[in-house]
Prior knowledge:
The strands form two sheets. This protein has a five-stranded parallel beta sheet with strand order 2-1-3-4-5, sandwiched between helices. Strands 9-8-7-6-10 form a five-stranded antiparallel beta sheet. By secondary structure, the protein is of the alpha/beta class. α1 packs antiparallel against α7 (145-152) and α2 (39-49) runs parallel beside α3 (66-76). It has seven helices and ten strands. Helices cover 38% and strands 24% of the residues. The model is unreliable at 144-155 (pLDDT under 50).
Amino acid sequence: MSIVSFLICDPSPALQTFLQQVLTGYGFDAAAIKTTGNPHAAAEIAPSHKPDFLVTDWFAKESLSGIGLHRQLVSANPGCRFALMAQSAGATLAQEARDAGALFFLPKPFSADSARSEMARALDQLAANHPKVAKQVQSWQMGATATRAAMVQLPALPKFKPGDRVVYKGQTEVVQHVILRRGEMVVQLRDVAGLIESSKIQPR
């Protein structure tokens, strides 16, 4: 059984995969890291999974926000900590995240290095209540070769999300799905057949 469990909740499958790989790069058991695309599904997973750490989008347009999701999770697992990400972020949201007790707050889009840095800091804070987490993080910091290799191979963060308006071949299109395929980011556009490499489209 894993010493600590994680729940990642974000509408982007590629970002879910990225954050999962950040955590497995530290040596945490992949089976203890659950991912989901919306807060309501996360709330259904939580009672049986009992996450110690939730990483969630803000979900400003959902009836259950990221902060609201964390409050629900705490009722089942009082020790659960959390971190927030948000597409449209400003000083007010950042302060609200801090007031709610978020271990970190990342405005989207963010770099892979920023995500790793914030996750490392959050794990250090988790270690205060989970001595074995401290040991796991310390082991990684000492530079195990296999762990370093896993971190180097992480995919790039997605540039786009479903619903974004983009330009493809001179035409304005709408992103329907963002997919990580063999380490490559591809998108499916609403009115275009097939999958398109993300490098071939531009934000509108």
